[in-house]
Design a protein that fits this description.
The complex is a heterodimer of chains A (242) and B (242). The radius of gyration of chain A is 18 Å and the shape is globular. Chain A has two domains: 79 residues, Glutaredoxin, CATH 3.40.30; 151 residues, Up-down Bundle (Glutathione S-transferase Yfyf (Class Pi), Chain A, domain 2). In chain A, β3 and β4 form a beta hairpin. Chain A has nine helices and four strands, in the order βαβαββααααααα. In chain A, strands 2-1-3-4 form a four-stranded mixed β-sheet, covered by helices on one side. In chain A, α1 runs parallel beside α3 and α4 crosses α9. Helices cover 57% and strands 7% of the residues of chain A. Chain A has 242 residues and is α+β, with helices and mostly antiparallel strands. In chain B, β1, α1 and β2 form a beta-alpha-beta unit. At the A-B interface, β4, α3 and α4 of A face β4, α2, α3 and α5 of B. Chain B: Keywords: Cytoplasm, Transferase. Chain B: This is glutathione transferase.
């Protein structure tokens, strides 16, 4: 039994893992966990991650959660090219710095837009008040400005001339609001150019494959969601956006 | 000009860096940033101004933010003992996993106790909102339960028999509620034992020195808060109350 990756490609960190593994030809078994069907709450999955979250990894008897931990584990175990997590002290620190900052900032704000535009209305049967979305978009733009000014600047990639884990984690997060119908790339040519470079670096086909489901997210219907999950999920998500 | 660390020991991530550097005899210049005095009273004021600008590191021309990034940089540059960030990739992954989970869980909840019990009343003049505190304590309880069941379990330290960055980052965060009178160790003997082990591993004197300010938080009520800062933060804090 080799490496198993437990993923739902609707989830941003899951996509990062999928792309990284495929792009580096890391052999793995794709274990699909459909969140909407509550598959992350089964006894079976709890054996892999008792905290019931995706992504998760199982490598023999070793289990691991948290996308950053999993990405670094794979990079080290399969000795992926240096640029993903450079051995140069300062470059490595820059990747660490981005991976840390992004959790609350890019990931937090980008997810919020998706939740407000797509997921919560789906669960609640009605949209949220428009000011909620406006507020979330404003917050997202503030962090996007920081991303451009502090992290990307005028470099081809976050850490310099080569793609790294930082770019991968960043881009999958930014695709979430795009999938919800908010094209944050529209008035940001620097980000468009960076996105193109990252897609090419990982492989356009792999990138598209990873994003096929999420780009169809607006076609999701409420019946796809397990009824027993609906109320719980709605409450949880409302809390997240408030 | 050597290593400079910009810190305010009222801040949890600052304490983990301070303890790590001192415990490993890493030579550095302590640049004290007094968060509540606002920009004009802080050294290096141009770059380090408001909350979230500490901790910060300056090593020659190289500047770095984000606690995790700084701790990792220091451990690598100064070749600290292996147990802090083990070279064994599975143990290392477990440290990464904790550091990542910590952000969205312990760090999302523990600091709120200070905001609610001390800072909000101090900044806004509004009385302590007790239902809000209740809510926060419940959230923190859930995180602590997961911490004990998933991360600490029956081990001496998070990744086994030796202390690592994971324990250090966790403990400083859990001291925040203690400082404001919410002793989360009181009914949790396993956590209390772990805390004792961590204190001994880093050095009791150093541990208490790092925590002197937060444990004497009543002094904070006498601090003259920069009026500009008060004006800036009061609406943000009021929002937190909702």
């Amino acid at each position: 039994m080799g490496l198993e990756l437990y993923l739902d490609l609707l989830s941003q960190p899951c996509r990062a893992l999928y792309i990284f593994a495929r792009s580096n030809n890391i052999p793995f078994e794709f274990k699909r966990v459909v969140l909407m069907k509550g598959e992350h709450r089964t006894e079976e999955f709890k054996k892999v991650n008792v905290l019931m979250k995706v992504p998760a990894l199982r490598d023999g008897s070793f289990t691991l959660a948290e996308s950053v931990a999993i990405l670094l584990y794979m990079a080290r175990k399969f000795k992926t090219p240096d640029h993903w997590y450079p051995s140069d002290l300062q470059k490595q620190a820059r990747v660490d710095e981005y991976l840390s900052w992004q959790q609350v900032n890019i990931r937090g704000k980008a997810s919020k837009v998706f939740l407000i535009k797509v997921l919560i209305p789906l669960l609640a049967g009605q949209p949220l008040p428009p000011e909620k979305l406006e507020g979330a978009i404003e917050e997202l733009n503030a962090v996007l400005n920081q991303f451009e000014e502090k992290f990307l600047q005028d470099k081809p990639f976050i850490v310099g001339s080569d793609v790294s884990l930082a770019d991968l984690i960043a881009l999958v997060e930014l695709m979430q609001p795009v999938a919800s119908g908010y094209d944050l790339f529209e008035e940001r040519p620097k980000l468009v150019a960076w996105r193109r470079r990252v897609e090419e670096a990982v492989g356009k086909q792999i990138f598209q494959e990873a994003h096929k489901e999420i780009l169809n997210a607006r076609n999701l219907t409420a019946d796809k969601i397990a009824p027993e999950l609906r109320e719980h999920l709605k409450q949880q998500l409302l809390k997240q956006v408030n | 000009m050597g290593l400079e660390l910009y810190l305010d020991l009222l801040s949890q991530p600052c304490r983990s860096i301070y303890i790590f550097a001192r415990s490993n005899n890493i030579p550095f210049e302590f640049k004290h940033v007094e968060l509540f005095k606002g920009p004009s009273n802080s050294e290096g004021a141009g770059k380090i101004s408001l909350l979230k600008k500490v901790p910060a590191l300056k090593d020659g021309d190289f500047t770095l933010a984000e606690c995790t990034a700084i701790l990792l940089y220091l451990s690598r540059k100064y070749n600290t003992p292996d147990h802090w960030y083990p070279s064994d990739i599975k143990k290392r992954a477990q440290v990464d996993e904790y550091l990542s989970w910590h952000h969205a869980n312990i760090r999302a909840n523990a600091p709120k106790t200070m905001w609610i019990k001390v800072l909000i009343p101090l900044f806004t003049g509004q009385p302590l909102p007790s239902e809000k505190l209740q809510e926060v304590m419940e959230g923190l309880s859930t995180s602590l339960k997961q911490f004990e069941e998933r991360f600490l379990q029956d081990k001496a330290f998070i990744i086994g028999s030796e202390i690592s960055l994971a324990d250090l980052v966790a403990i400083v965060e859990l001291m925040q509620p203690v400082g404001v009178g919410c002793d989360i160790f009181e009914d949790r003997p396993r956590l209390m034992e772990w805390r004792r082990r961590v204190e001994e591993a880093v050095g009791k004197e150093l541990f208490f020195q790092a925590h002197e300010m937060i444990l004497n938080i009543k002094e904070l009520s006498n601090i003259q808060i920069d009026p500009q800062l008060k004006e800036h933060l009061a609406p943000v804090l009021m929002k937190m109350l909702k």
